[in-house]
Design brief:
By secondary structure, the chain is α/β, with parallel strands linked by helices. It contains 16 helices and 9 strands. It has a 9-stranded mixed sheet with strand order 1-2-3-5-4-6-7-8-9, with helices on both faces. Helix 7 links the parallel strand 6 and strand 7.
C-alpha cells in the first residue's frame, strides 16, 4: 500500500466530519486546501466521558504545586471541563481565521494564513512549541494583522502564517520523529513555495525558537529578521563573565538538574509516555497543565495567567486530533535529527525578555550578542514562557517594534 493510500488519523477524523475539501495529501508541493475544524460530536463526548470516569490518584499533602500538578485544581478544572466548557464555542473562535492544509515533502501541514490590513503587510511565520499549539497565538492575530485597530500604525501590519508542527494538531504525524532542522526546511517551503513569500520574518519560543534558529542558519537570504520570546545562547568564557552572568549560569544549571526530567523522558522514551497521554484525557491534561503553571507568570495562581477556557482549548487541541502522544515525538526528533554545530546567526535578531521565562531560555544579553546579530532587546514587565498567550498586547507591540527596523 502506498503512503498516500494508508488510512491516517487525520483523514479518518476529517472523513467523519464530512468535509469534502479534505482529500488525502499527495506527495510534493500542491496547492493548499482550505480547512475548517469540525470535530465529530462523538469524539468530544468520548473525551468528556473519559474525564468523568477517570481513576483519580491519591492526593499527596503538601503545598499546592509541590509534587507536580495541583490535585485540587485538577478537580476544579475537570468539573468545569465536563459541565461548562464549550468546545463548539472554542472551535468557532479557532475557525474565525483562514486555515489551510498544504502537502510538503509528503506531510500535510496545517496552518493559519491571515492577510494583513495595510499598504505593505510583511510576512511572518510564528512557530509554537510543546505543550503549546497554534492556540497560543489566537489573541494576537488581529493585533498583528490589523494594528491600526489597536492604536498602532497600518504600516506595521503583518501577513501572519502559523503552522502546526508535524505530529501536532491537524498536521500529519511523521513516520519517524523529526527535529528543528527538518521542520525549518518544511517551513521554508511553506513560506516560499506555498505562500509565495521569497523574504519573510520568523518568531518563536520553546521549540519555535529552535526552528527559527534553523531557518536563519539554513536560509539567511530568505530571512529579514528573527524574533524570540525566549531562546538559548552559549555562555561567554567564565573568566569574561560578570558576577550577574555567573549567577545566571548557576541558576540555569540548577534548573536543568531539577526541572527537566520530563525532557529526558520525552527524548529517550517517547513511546512509553505517549501511551498514557494518548489513552487518558485526564493524564494528558495533568501533564500539560503542570507546565503551564510552572513556566508562566502565575505566582498569584494559574488563572492569573490563563483562563480555564484557554487552558482547556489548548488541551483539547491535542485530544480532538489524537496528538497528545505524537506531540512529544519532537523531543526524540531533536536527538535523531540533530542540528549542525552552532555558529553565530547573522540575521538581524530581536529578543523580548519576559521575566518569568524559564532561566534556560532567558540568557544574559551579552550571551545573546555572542550568538546572534542582536539589534533589539526589550525587558518586559511581566509574562512567562507562553508569552503570546499570557501577554498578547506586549508580545505584538514588541514584534511590530522589532520588524519596523528590518521589514523594508
Amino acid at each position: 500500500m502506498s503512503n498516500e493510500a494508508k488510512p491516517t488519523r487525520r483523514n479518518t477524523l476529517l472523513g467523519l466530519a464530512a468535509m469534502p475539501l479534505m482529500a488525502p495529501a499527495v506527495r510534493g508541493e500542491a496547492a493548499p486546501r482550505p480547512f475548517r475544524i469540525a470535530v465529530p460530536q462523538r469524539k468530544i463526548d468520548r473525551i468528556l466521558a473519559r474525564v468523568r470516569e477517570a481513576q483519580w490518584p491519591d492526593r499527596l499533602d503538601g503545598s499546592q504545586w509541590q509534587y507536580g500538578v495541583n490535585w485540587d485544581y485538577m478537580k476544579e478544572l475537570a468539573a468545569f471541563w465536563t459541565t461548562r466548557f464549550d468546545w463548539r464555542k472554542a472551535e468557532a473562535k479557532l475557525n474565525s481565521h483562514p486555515q489551510f492544509i498544504a502537502s510538503i515533502d509528503g506531510l500535510d501541514i496545517h496552518y493559519y494564513h491571515v492577510r494583513g490590513k495595510g499598504p505593505r503587510p510583511f510576512p511572518i511565520v510564528l512557530t509554537h512549541g510543546w505543550p503549546g499549539s497554534v492556540v497560543e497565538f489566537q489573541d494576537a492575530i488581529e493585533q498583528l494583522t490589523n494594528p491600526a485597530a489597536f492604536g498602532g500604525s497600518e504600516d506595521d501590519a503583518f501577513d501572519v502564517v502559523i503552522p502546526s508542527l508535524p505530529g501536532f494538531g491537524f498536521s500529519s504525524k511523521p513516520p519517524k520523529p523529526v527535529g528543528p532542522p527538518t521542520i525549518a526546511r518544511l517551513w521554508h517551503k511553506l513560506m516560499k513555495d506555498v505562500a509565495g513569500y521569497p523574504r519573510f520574518g520568523a518568531q518563536g519560543g520553546d521549540w519555535g525558537q529552535a526552528v527559527t534558529i534553523q531557518l536563519a542558519a539554513q536560509f539567511p537570504e530568505s530571512l529579514a529578521g528573527i524574533h524570540f520570546s525566549g531562546t538559548t545562547a552559549r555562555a561567554l568564557p567564565e573568566a569574561e563573565q560578570t558576577e550577574e552572568e555567573k549567577a545566571w549560569v548557576r541558576l540555569s544549571n540548577a534548573y536543568r538538574q531539577n526541572e527537566l526530567d520530563y525532557f529526558g523522558e520525552q527524548t529517550h522514551k517517547p513511546q512509553t509516555v505517549s501511551f498514557a497521554l494518548s489513552d487518558s484525557p485526564l493524564a494528558a491534561a495533568a501533564w500539560i497543565l503542570e507546565k503551564f503553571k510552572s513556566w508562566s507568570d502565575s505566582d498569584a495562581g494559574i488563572e492569573s495567567a490563563f483562563t480555564k477556557d484557554q487552558l482547556l482549548t489548548n488541551i483539547m487541541w491535542y485530544l480532538v486530533t489524537d496528538t497528545a502522544g505524537s506531540g512529544v515525538w519532537i523531543y526524540r526528533g531533536n536527538a535523531d535529527d540533530p542540528a549542525a554545530p552552532r555558529g553565530r546567526v547573522s540575521v538581524p535578531t530581536g529578543f523580548a525578555a519576559f521575566p518569568k521565562e524559564m532561566p534556560i531560555f532567558l540568557p544574559p544579553r551579552r550571551f545573546l550578542e555572542r550568538d546572534f546579530n542582536l539589534i533589539h532587546y526589550t525587558q518586559m514587565p511581566r509574562g512567562g514562557h507562553f508569552a503570546c498567550m499570557e501577554q498578547p498586547r506586549l508580545f505584538s507591540e514588541d514584534l511590530r517594534a522589532f520588524f519596523r527596523a528590518v521589514r523594508s
